[in-house]
Amino acid sequence: EPEVTQTPSHQVTQMGQEVILRCVPISNHLYFYWYRQILGQKVEFLVSFYNNEISEKSEIFDDQFSVERPDGSNFTLKIRSTKLEDSAMYFCASSSGTPYQPQHFGDGTRLSIL
Amino acid sequence: GENVEQHPSTLSVQEGDSAVIKCTYSDSASNYFPWYKQELGKRPQLIIDIRSNVGEKKDQRIAVTLNKTAKHFSLHITETQPEDSAVYFCAASIVGEYGNKLVFGAGTILRVKS
Fold it and tell me: CA-based angle B75:B77:B80, to the nearest 5?
């Protein structure tokens, strides 16, 4: 069964540095998402991406964050000037172009800001 | 915006018993309701979902019911097994042309005692 893959599995970064989290969605999927989960809390929506542009973003997704689909397979989340409170598990998800199809999640990247 | 409440936060059952987890949502426009199971340190995995035009859906030991009028939906697991132990998240979504963000509940820790 095809899977969403994310790299790295764990990223440790100094506060103030920039990080890029990488995702390879399922190949025929058209909708891409980033979510985050702070330890012990619920999964929170960050941003959705369709047709090479952001379709929706949450209040969390401020100017510090950006997303990009640099080629036909990768989908990246960039966090500039990281803060301690950015420490979380970041999940990428993708879904097909058919309505009501489920979102498939990757294994996540655990981001630790020191 | 959409808000999803989930209860209980923890649930302990004896192996073989049934487990019920309940969620309420606030936005009457929500039309898609997935349930995800998350084992410790792993990705959320879809276990069942339901659309707003359906009142109930069943898949082996798992069933979901939806009451649109009351804006609540429930997950029912029968004949629970130790491997059902995990965190379960409900979510609500409005399926649209540009994708659909998932708004998650806070999660329920299910412990099945053998």
Answer: 150
Three-state DSSP at A84 gives: helix
Please report residues of A whose CB lies closer than 8 A to that of B34: 102-103
Residue with tokens 């990705």: B43
Task: Give yes or no for A25 touching B (CB within 8 A).
Answer: no
User: What are phi and psi for residue A7, nearest 5 degrees?
Assistant: -140, 150
For residue A14, what pLDDT is reported?
A: 97
Q: Supply the pLDDT for residue B13.
A: 98
Q: Quick one: how far is CA B30 from the chain centroid?
A: 15
Measured between CB atoms, which of A55, A58, A91 is closest to B98?
A55
Burial class from Cβ neighbours inside 10 Å (0-12, 13-18, 19+) for residue A53 reads: exposed
